[in-house]
């Protein structure tokens, strides 16, 4: 009788154990399916990945390891539809007609002044040459920094801003340009060539020669953002890269 009772108890324990393990595994599987696994920001969606809305990012379902190269922006570029290289460039050129005001960040690299310097300046895009140009006053901090480190980042943006009274239409466009700057004094032939493309309007070209330096930035890549692209099924972030750029 005792053996029978002991056998029944063992059977009960086995059944309970199997039931508990099964439910725990099922719960873990549900969490895994709902939350997703750990990924890096450079990972791309597989063909078997569940369908997601263009407004979603990987971090909503996954734990993501970010680094300086694989940014959140890169995830949008990697995993949502991109336009052709020519289509992106046309969007960029249309967004930057004539002259536009940019914020330009430079880094001098001095140990006593490691901070970047952000300044505003007017730039003119030359679409056929994949360059953007501006004129700078001689002796400015940004020129001193560019001589030490010619690599720059520029941003131009337009759009609606949220506030106490939200706008009727929410929209946003921006370009973030990465490139390498080259500066030309007035005695260089490139100064005259660039000044004609830049078109001075506050300072005449003869005065500009005495006080200005022409700066040409060869564009390495551009991140173009346009919130309206999501309605067309494209990623709002579009990456344009220059295959002819030389560091």
Automatic annotation (TrEMBL):
The keyword Signal applies. Pfam families: PNPOx_N (PF01243). It comes from the Bacteria. InterPro entries: Pyridox_Oxase_N, Split_barrel_FMN-bd. The keyword Signal applies. Residues 89-224 form the Pyridoxamine 5'-phosphate oxidase N-terminal domain. Keywords: Signal. Residues 1-26 form the signal peptide. This is Pyridoxamine 5'-phosphate oxidase N-terminal domain-containing protein. It comes from Candidatus Schekmanbacteria bacterium RIFCSPLOWO2_12_FULL_38_15. The lineage of its organism: Bacteria, Candidatus Schekmaniibacteriota.
